[in-house]
Amino acid sequence: MTQHSTESKAAPHADAARHARVLGTLRDALGASAVQGPGEFAGRRHADASRMPCADPIALVRPADTQQVALALKICHSLDQPVVTQGGLTGLSGGACLGEGEVALSLERMRGIEHIDTAAATMTVLAGTPLQTVQEAAHAAGLLFALDLGARGSATIGGNLATNAGGNRVIRYGMAREQVLDVEAVLADGQVIGGRHRMIKNNTGYDLRQLLIGSEGTLAVITRAVLRLHPRPAALCTAFCGLADCAAATTLLSRAQAALPAGVSAFEVMWPGYYDFVTTQMHGMRPPLPGSHGFYVLLESSAANAQRQAQDFEDFLGDMLQAGIIEDAAIAASQSDAAAFWAIRDAPGEYERYLPGRVSFDISFAISDISEAARRCQAALRAGWPQASILVYGHLGDGNIHIVVQEPGWSEASRAAVQATVFGITGEMNGSVSAEHGIGLKRKHVLGLTRTPAEIATMRAIKAALDPKGLLNRGKVFDYNAPG
User: Fold this and answer.
1) Are the C-beta atoms of 72 and 105 separated by less than 8 Å?
2) Contact criterion met (CB below 8 Å) for 416 and 68
């Protein structure tokens, strides 16, 4: 008993000494402007938006360039010091949260547009640059950076790529990985790779760019990216539609993709529970349509010819009304109208005020299975938690739905049972437990519902090859034990 007590008291002192050594070594190498200790960053938020537990770091490293990132990782590698890379802290899976005794590596000082090539339609940016800054720079150059999501003002490019962000325009332009020609990254031991190529076609062996995109900071630290831009649409038409059911929405999607000359740039869907909650319970939201419907769709189409696009869009909606596929529709007559429509869909950004203690899901299925998946989930949740708020919405065009469940005053056991219910249905229907938010800490316990043992073993082998000591974002995506 006495020996146990002595060891318990000694361990914190040993940890403190080790932490002080790590902090001192980093500060000596990078300077006080790049490295802060706990007393200097007191009160700073370190957790992401996932509401997962997060410890304070033993040191906050804020490098100014790739060379400082490389030096910091080389030092941490030599000291066997775990590191968590942080961007805008908008992630929803706990991927940026710290465990005890870890160093936080923030890329907030590494921001800026380095180069725009309008002929090649590319942009080279530092990883700490906010998504909105990139969007605005592309717009000013007469181009479009297609990635878009509600946290655009805070989310950074590095974080977007590390999590392979999805967002509102996946149906037309694809996920984040489709918007990137090359990335520069620093490996766990401080080696720098990539970031030099601006061509679309580069078939020279393994695509390390795509390996790192979506790896959630577990394989390397992305420091720079060469982004792919697109022609900027001159016309953007937006409509908010009321339909009878999900089947009508699926029909509307297929007909819009076939009939609209410019195609579909966004197709956001909302089940009635979501629409009614947002328009009646959330401050500042007004219903775009006068009546109630069994389903709602925000449809957007962009094109180069404003006059022709507007007429084609209006004619198409008229045809859909006449055919009975749409019950009612409101067409945005101005940018402010379109913004009001999008505010309904972007309302989840305010959930914390209205739905504290909620359980959220980011799941995906084959498009043809979406209606049945949503029906099964809602029925199971309503049977188990009859008093709960159940909100369902998402991106029908890419098979991604979000489900939010909250019951005032419920227990942790109830929240766990809700997760088991929805994830169980997802696994049974061969869906994905994470469509666009990543695995992080929050979903790694259900990774096996979407990935086979052989696939997870392959991931671990890649981790062992690039980060053999397991120092980068340890414990995220899956558990990894370093050899020895």
Assistant:
1) yes
2) no
Gap between the Cα atoms of 365 and 422, Å rounded: 13
Residue 137 near residue 92, CB atoms below 8 Å: no
A 10 A CB-CB count for 310 gives: 16
User: What is the pTM (predicted TM-score) of this model?
Assistant: 0.91
If you write DSSP's letter for every residue of 114-130 in order, what string do you get?
EEEETTTTEEEEETTSB
Whole-angstrom distance, CA of residue 267 vs CA of residue 249: 9
For residue 179, the SS3 value is helix
Q: Could you tell me if 438 and 95 are in contact, meaning their C-beta atoms sit under 8 angstroms apart?
A: yes
Dist CA 371 CA 295 (whole Å): 11
Cβ–Cβ < 8 Å for 105, 63? yes
Residue of 231, 230, 216, 235 lying closest to 178 (CA atoms):
230
Is 45 exposed, middle or buried (CB count within 10 Å of its CB: 0-12, 13-18, 19+)? exposed
Tokens of 112: 């800026």
Torsion angle, alpha carbons of 115, 118, 120, 124, to 10: 20
CB distance 344 to 288 below 8 Å: yes
Residue 76 structure tokens: 């941490």
The CB-based long-range contact list for 413-418 (8 Å cut-off, 24+ gap) reads 414/385, 415/357, 415/359, 417/384, 418/359, 418/381, 418/384, 418/385
Length, in residues, of the chain: 484
What is the distance between the alpha carbons of residues 73 and 79, in angstroms, rounded to a whole number? 10
- Which pLDDT tens digits describe the chain residue by residue (484 residues)? 333 333 344 566 779 999 999 999 999 999 999 999 999 998 899 999 998 999 999 999 999 999 999 999 999 999 999 999 999 999 999 999 999 999 999 999 999 999 999 999 999 999 999 999 999 999 999 999 999 988 899 999 999 999 999 988 899 999 999 999 999 999 999 999 999 899 999 999 999 999 999 999 999 999 999 999 999 988 889 999 999 999 999 999 999 999 998 889 999 999 999 999 999 999 889 999 999 999 999 999 987 777 788 999 999 999 999 999 999 999 999 999 999 999 999 898 888 889 988 999 999 999 999 999 999 999 999 999 999 999 999 998 889 999 999 998 899 999 999 999 999 999 999 999 999 999 999 999 999 999 999 999 999 999 999 999 999 999 999 999 888 7
Question: Which strands make up the sheet holding 113-117, listed edge to edge?
Answer: 113-117, 122-126, 220-228, 180-187, 192-194
